[in-house]
Amino acid sequence: GDSVTQMEGPVTLSEEAFLTINCTYTATGYPSLFWYVQYPGEGLQLLLKATKADDKGSNKGFEATYRKETTSFHLEKGSVQVSDSAVYFCALRNTGNQFYFGTGTSLTVIP
Amino acid sequence: EAGVVQSPRYKIIEKKQPVAFWCNPISGHNTLYWYRQNLGQGPELLIRYENEEAVDDSQLPKDRFSAERLKGVDSTLKIQPAELGDSAVYLCASSFVGGFTEAFFGQGTRLTVV
Lengths: 111, 114
Hints:
heterodimer, A: mainly beta, six-stranded mixed beta sheet, four-stranded antiparallel beta sheet, B: 11 strands
């Protein structure tokens, strides 16, 4: 079946460091790919998305590129801030209208 | 535009008691999802509705869990009786059916069974 595998955390970075969180997926057909962010006590919020191969999603300095050849959708940010501390989830939506989520990566940014 | 609304935000009950969660999706969204999220894990689907129809309930523990979506809008998820292992965050989400759009999530209900 379809699935998402993402880098396990927790990840701790200093402010202004470079961030990469790896995500790979398994799916039949051509899914849409998403990164969600979850702050403590809150639901999941969409961070960015890409709907077809080679698309780049971006938002708030975060970027991810849909790589069909490597079935990957890695999240990157060039300079993290303390306010980026949260849990990040990679997800896919397949052509059957089903969503699959990774297990989440906890990020802590220290001043 | 209002987002997905869930209530209550928190619930503490004793084991073997019943509990119910309510969700109001975004207006116009015909797909509604209920997920369970255990601590340190990603959301896991319990049930998915398209309009009034439950199209995917394979992961719903039907011996104790039930759900309904009246008139294809609001939804209620019920657990009866609750067990200690049901302690988790229950998330409701909605989206348009078809296409490649994202799901929008409510803030969740944190259930603690003691």
